[in-house]
Amino acid sequence: MTGTLELTAGSVVGEAAxxxxxxPERFRFRDALDRLTGSLAREGRLTPDGARTVRATxxxxxxxxxxxxxxxxxxxxxxxxxxxxxxVITGLLRTxxxxxxxxxxxxxxxxxxxxxxxxxxxxxxxxxQGYEVLADRAQHYVDEYNKVAPELxxxxxxxxxxxDECQRLIGTxxxxxxxxxxxxxxxxxxxxxxxxxxxEYRYHRRQVQAMLWRIPGAPVVLxxxxxxxxxxxxxxxxxxxxxxxxxxxxxxxxxSTASLCSVIxxxxxxxVDRTEIGHQWxxxxxxxxxxxxxTRRALPPGQVLDVRYRDLVRDPVAxxxxxxxxxxxxxxxxxxxxxxxxxxxxxxxxHGRHDYHPAQFGxxxxxxxxxxxxxxxxxxx
Length: 381
What we know:
Layout lengths: L8 H12 L9 H14 L4 H27 L12 E5 L5 H8 L10 H5 L8 H21 L3 H4 L11 H5 L6 H5 L3 H8 L4 H17 L6 E3 L7 H7 L4 E6 L2 H17 L7 H17 L1 H4 L8 E5 H6 L1 H12 L5 H13 L19 H7 L1 H7 L2
Parallel strand pairs: 1-2, 1-3, 3-4
Helix pairs in contact: 1-3, 2-10, 11-12, 13-14, 13-19
């Protein structure tokens, strides 16, 4: 129990089954949901409003599963929709993945799903009016979220009609690091660290196929920092993916990630321990940075492009051209003009500065620098 609200997998599934008019056994990924709700109830420190919001979100996520199932039952050709050579942007949080994503979205030859699509991967609507309704609903969600997390736009700006992370698709499986970002769920996080994610990525692909069936286009561009922890699963499901691996000194990204996490958690939590958050992300990030070669072993060398944050900041358009060449997509004049226009209209501080310091999160700058020396030397960041 969280306050007077029951937050268990059984109660969430029961409500979703009633709302969707299906047998509770029809829902997928129950084990992950059990672990997530158990951790939230025991460890989450949710406010009453936070608990209500979490419960509503989990119910809606289960309903999304049924919406997708029903869509595929009516249109089985969705499962034959190809996803050729997807461009997958990953790297630690705060490494420039969002900037690359938004710049690639200016390329008329790329299919870059917007936030409203990722929030509604399965829908029968295939008309512009229907898309606008979904986009308006998604924007309302963004506006309401920004009211409870007013600092968020300075760190990660959301717009329903702009690209966003495909973690939302993995989130429908209840096995995603996004839940570690949003909530205090240490036991869930410990379980997730050792989990094989192939089935979850197969479900991710199914949702991508639904989006491409609705609005065709290729190659599709997908972006999420958390893919970095699941490259083996990603490679198994998307064997021809072109992976853009962003690099920035982890001594800078760890405290920045902790800052983002603390802002997001404050929206739904009674109390946020910034030192705990700092050490959580340090211990999540350090192992994967210590052995980057092992992390990337599942990917053929010719399918990974390394992009340094410093190079992106120095000449963004040149790096986008480099990415396009790697992906086999011509960097057209329209793509160049679009990228330049985006940069002119969206300065890094347009929504305010993101100020933070390692000490705020119980971290020592010199210690962080020492821990990641080898990584910096390997990738020149």
